[in-house]
Amino acid sequence: MFAYILRRLLLMVPTIVGVVTLTFIVTQFVPGGPVEQMVTQLRHGESRHGADGGGGSGYHGSQGLDPQQIEQIKKQFGFDKPPLTRYLLMLKSYATFDLGQSYFQHKSVWEVIRSKLPVSISLGLWTVMLTYAVSVPLGIAKAVRNGSRFDAVTSVLVLVGYAIPGFVLGVLLLMLFGGGTFWQLFPMRGLTSDNFADLSAAGKVLDYVWHMVLPVTASVVGNFAIVTILTKNTFLEEIGRQYVLTARAKGAPERDVLWKHVLRNAAIPLLTGLPAAFVGAFLNGNLLIETLFSLDGMGQLSYDSVIRRDYPVVLGSLFLFTLIGLLTKLIADVCYVIVDPRIQFDSVDR
């Protein structure tokens, strides 16, 4: 087991280097880099002060700017060095978990990411918790009542929820309950109210939950179908196994058969997939949901960083999330062994 974990950890290094390298190469060919954007801002600033009336809406080179000023901008962003030098310096920094400084936010990448995580963690945590809390019992009930009217109706409901995009559902929720057209029951934006700091402890909890109802609902409804169907199919497969028939033949109560025998084996794929589901939910971010409900999270950060060509944030967050994703996959594999001791990675490797 230890040898397997060590090999997986060592294999993460070339994987991360490959992902970061590919992204770095792509950024070198994307037009409108940070230097060009800064030059454009300076030129537009001069236009607003009456320097010339043709500021335009795009980048027109360094026209109207002192070449020395252009060189200062390049040095500020590190573009006075060759690409290979910048690439090697980036890898050296990442080896010590130094993600660099944001070009435009004047903060370290760590600070930028840390400031956005509360929103994404909130959405991800509630989404995963509610998905499993609803889908697992529902999937078990569907497996026990397989082929019944209850099974058919719930299948239609979860599939309809899966088919409706979260953004469309969010717009509908805002129209109905956010004061858009009908009732003003929930706030339209933000994670907390403006007077959040002045509230009591219980008031802060209620205010937070009050703000999370609509965005979490829009995020979670589409996730019910996958976990529900997975739970149902896993239970149906386990119910047909020999040990279940043997337990029933010995006169074991049906409740004991389902909850003590079937559940323990059927829960293996659900439990082992939980770390990846949780990490994926709060790291990926949901740009459309965050934009709709004015939540400043990782989805909005990723979009803004790409648009503004804030390469340290783009590459740094990609490096960090790739590392976390690979570690999560390793944790999921280890969970297999913990949940089901019959699995032995050493024998698989041989």
Describe what you observe in this structure.
About 5% of the residues have low confidence. This protein has 16 helices and no strands. The chain folds into 2 domains: 68 residues, no CATH class; 234 residues, MetI-like (MetI-like fold, Orthogonal Bundle), CATH 1.10.3720.10. Helix content is 73%, strand content 0%.
Give short descriptive properties of this protein.
16 helices; MetI-like fold; 350 residues; 73% helix; mainly alpha; 2 domains
β-strand amount: under 5%
How is the main sheet built?
A: none
Helix content: over 70%
Shape: globular
Mean pLDDT, nearest integer? 79
Report the CATH topology name of the largest domain.
MetI-like fold
What is the domain total for the residues? 2
Radius of gyration: 26 Å
Count of helical regions: 16
CATH architecture of the largest domain: Orthogonal Bundle
Instruction: Output the CATH homologous superfamily of the largest domain.
Output: MetI-like
Q: Which CATH class of the largest domain?
A: Mainly Alpha
Q: Low-confidence parts lasting 5 or more residues at pLDDT below 50?
A: 47-63
Protein name: ABC transporter permease subunit
Biased composition (Gly residues): 52-61
Transmembrane segments: 9-30, 123-144, 156-183, 208-231, 270-293, 313-339
Membrane topology: Multi-pass membrane protein
